Amino acid sequence: MELRGRAWKYGDDIDTDVIIPARYLNTSEPEELAKYCLKDLDEDFVNKMNEGDMIVAAKNFGCGSSREHAPLAIKAAGVSCVIAKSFARIFYRNAINIGLPILESIEAVDGIDTEDEVEVDVESGEIRNLTKGEVYQAEPFPEFMQDIIQVGGLINYVAGKVDK
Question: 20 to 30 A from 107, CA-CA: which of 23, 64, 117, 140?
Answer without folding.
Answer: 64
